[in-house]
Structure formats: structure tokens, C-alpha cells
Write a structure and sequence with these properties.
Layout lengths: L1 E9 L3 H19 L2 E6 L4 H7 L5 H8 L3 E6 L3 H4 L8 H11 L4 E7 L12 H4 L3 E7 L9 E3 L6 E3 L5 H17 L3 E6 L5 H14 L6 E6 H10 L6 E4 L1 H12 L9 E5 L4 E5 L16 H13 L3 H16 L15 H12 L9 H5 L7
Parallel strand pairs: 1-2, 1-3, 3-12, 5-10, 8-9, 8-10
Antiparallel strand pairs: 4-5, 4-11, 6-7, 11-12
Bound molecules: 3-isopropylmalic acid and manganese (II) ion.
Length: 371
């Protein structure tokens, strides 16, 4: 199979983690006889520095003419300190989501038994936790009309949803539930918000088409609490843009590290794959960032290309590194490996250069010396 992949390394740790993900994709291509061609594009703070805009037209064109986009992360602290900044790195990502019509952001929450001790939750609560969040990504308060008055004493963000916008992601979420445990939870704030009441109405109507799927409705404040009290109750969570942003970060910590989790953003044509984590500027350039979120995002890309076996091979390599403790500092402070070494080990596993009995001594030598 031949695929054109746009790669946006972005800011902070983005370049380091995407480098690993690309190496993993190359290893898969070599093993299975595929050809992945990469075209690099700039976005975020680095694009602002170079061109003055967060998503240059050339980058957008590269993405539009590719089969998929692999994104590292974007964001820089210098913009966080200035709320009045007119150009911001996030604008690039939001524009890209809108232009590619990436209306569904899919964030699977998978727990690894070998990392349970890192979770802030008790092990008992974590057993059998496995769910996926379907977050609407191109509507709601993120994209509604924004206003600020002249003397900057009043501001507003409109939250708008249409039936069509809700239906298209709800269908995907129902279909996902059918393939999983047939349970779907709509998270909203229907006791207060008109948009949430529309979500409920539309989802109730769609539920008639998917009679096998049991639908529950939760207010977002309660959902935030339930994620901590009893996360195993969830199978597929469906929610609007901003609730999904907040709940997916909360859900991500259940796994022990935000650095582990991938996401896929699906639209009408080119899909985008990126780790859930941000640009983590404090770690940039230090070769310590966890590349697993980016690598698992590449695995989701392979799934999207219907390369299921290939995706499984990547996931197996990830599990192997986690089980054997070949992990970055966020997962083990005392015994850590660098970003690039974890990448090399993943590649070794995928290309079957690791014998079945792991040569620990050899790998020990690659252990990180950075403290
Ligand atoms: C995410 C991020 C983005 C969002 C930011 C960077 C605009 O937090 O992908 O979750 O809020 O959607
Ligand atoms: Mn977020």
C-alpha cells in the first residue's frame, strides 16, 4: 500500500515524539511492504515565528493533498502569558480541524496493568477500565462567534450546534458502541443549556435506530465525578467539543500518564492523528518525552488505512516496552530510557530484531543517563 502522510512536528516535544512515530511507521512499511511518503508541514508557534501565521496556506495544502496527517503538538508558553495576543499557535490547529472538517475526535482510554501503580486511582477501581471518548471537534463554543468590547471589559463566546452536526458524530459513536459493549453515555448539561437539550433530543431519536445500544445521559459535572468514582461504567462517551476537551484530559490521567494516549480526528476526507498531550515545553529537546502517545496515534492511523495487522504489531511493540520497563521518565523516574531509545526498541520489536528471550543486558546499556 502506498500512502501520503503529512507530518506536522509542531512545537515543544512535538518534533521528538513525531520522529519516533515516523520511525515506527517506517519499520511497519519495511516489514509489510508498504510505502509511506512523508511531507513535512509547519504549524503552531514555530510557524508563527517563521511566517507570522499559525497555519500557513502551504501547510494546509500539504494536509489537504495527503491521505492522513500526523501531528506532534502545538503551543508555546509565551502566548499563554499574553491573553491579548492576536496570533496564537492554537489558531493553527483549530483552523486545520475546521478546514479538514474533522468533526469527530476519538480518544480511547486504555489501561496497562504494568502501569497501574502510576494511576492516582486505587487499583480496584481500575480493573476492566476500557472506554473511548467521542468528542465533537468542529462546533460548539470553540467555533461560535467571539466578541470583545473596545475597552476590553466584556467578552462573549457563542455556543451553537445544529442537528446535522450532532447526528454525524452520534452515528459514529453508536456504531462504535455496537462494536464494543453496546453502551453509550451522552454527557451534556441539559439542565441548563439549550444546545445540550438539542443533543439529548437528537441522540434520543437516533437511539431508535440502534436498539441494541443502551443509552445513558449524564450531566457533565456528574460525569467528571463518575470518571473518578467508577470509571469502569463507561464504554463509549459521546459529548460536545469543550466538555470532551476537559473530560478527556481527566480520563487520560487514569492510565498513569497523559503521554500514553493517542487520538484520531475523523472528518469527511483526510483524517488527523495526534497524541492527547500538549507541547510540554519544559521537556523540549531533552530526549525525555514519552513517545507512546504519538506512536499509538500512528497505530490509529494504520487502523484508519485498514491495516489492522500492522496496527496490532505496533500496539504489541508498545505493550512489550511497557511490560519490560523500557519507559521514559514520566513512567519511571529511577529507571528511564530516552525518547529515542524507546523508539529504537519499538523499531527493533516491530522488525523482529529482539529475540524472544529479551537480551536485557544489551538493553541496559541503552538506559538513559539523564537524571
Ligand atoms: C486538545 C487541545 C486543543 C483543544 C488546544 C490545543 C486548542 O487541548 O486537542 O485537546 O482545546 O482542543
Ligand atoms: Mn485538550
Amino acid at each position: 500500500m502506498k500512502k501520503k502522510i503529512a507530518v506536522i512536528p509542531g512545537d515543544g516535544i512535538g518534533p521528538e515524539v513525531t520522529r519516533v512515530a515516523v520511525k515506527v511507521l517506517d519499520a511497519v512499511a519495511e516489514e509489510f511492504g508498504h510505502r509511506f511518503e512523508y511531507q513535512y508541514a509547519s504549524m503552531g508557534a514555530e510557524a508563527i515565528d517563521k511566517t507570522g501565521t499559525a497555519l500557513p496556506d502551504a501547510s494546509l495544502e500539504t494536509c489537504l493533498s495527503s491521505d492522513a496527517v500526523l501531528l506532534g503538538a502545538i503551543g508555546h508558553p509565551k502566548y499563554d502569558k499574553d491573553p491579548t495576543a492576536k496570533v496564537r499557535p492554537e489558531q493553527g490547529l483549530l483552523k486545520l480541524r475546521r478546514e479538514l472538517h474533522l468533526f469527530a475526535n476519538i480518544r480511547p482510554i486504555t489501561l496497562y496493568p504494568s502501569l497501574q501503580h502510576l494511576s492516582p486511582l486505587k487499583s480496584k477501581l481500575l480493573e476492566d477500565v476500557d472506554f473511548v471518548i467521542y468528542r465533537e471537534l468542529t462546533g460548539g463554543i470553540y467555533f461560535g462567534k467571539k466578541e470583545v468590547n473596545e475597552d476590553y471589559t466584556e467578552a462573549s463566546d457563542m455556543c451553537v450546534y445544529t442537528k446535522v452536526e450532532i447526528e454525524r458524530i452520534a452515528h459514529l459513536a453508536f456504531q462504535a458502541a455496537r462494536k464494543r459493549s453496546n453502551r453509550l453515555t451522552l454527557v451534556d448539561k441539559a439542565n441548563v443549556l439549550e444546545t445540550s437539550r438539542l443533543w439529548r433530543k437528537v441522540v434520543q431519536q437516533l437511539a431508535l435506530i440502534y436498539p441494541k445500544v443502551q443509552v445513558d445521559y449524564l450531566y457533565v459535572d456528574n460525569a467528571a465525578m463518575q470518571l473518578i468514582l467508577n470509571p469502569k461504567q463507561f464504554d463509549v462517551i459521546l459529548t460536545e467539543n469543550m466538555f470532551g476537551d476537559i473530560l478527556s484530559d481527566e480520563a487520560a490521567v487514569l492510565s498513569g500518564s497523559l503521554g500514553l494516549l493517542p487520538s484520531a480526528s475523523i472528518g469527511t476526507s483526510t483524517a488527523l492523528f495526534e497524541p492527547i498531550h500538549g507541547s510540554y515545553p519544559q521537556a523540549a529537546g531533552k530526549d525525555i518525552a514519552n513517545p507512546i502517545g504519538a506512536v499509538l496515534s500512528a497505530a490509529m492511523m494504520l487502523d484508519h488505512f485498514l491495516l489492522k495487522e500492522e496496527a496490532e504489531v505496533v500496539r504489541a511493540a508498545v505493550e512489550w516496552t511497557l511490560q519490560n520497563g523500557f519507559v521514559t521518565k514520566d513512567l519511571n523516574v529511577e529507571n528511564s530510557y530516552s525518547t529515542s531509545t524507546v523508539g529504537e526498541l519499538l523499531v527493533d520489536h516491530i522488525t523482529q530484531h529482539i529475540p524472544s528471550a529479551v537480551n536485557h543486558r544489551n538493553i541496559e546499556l541503552r538506559k538513559s543517563t539523564i537524571i
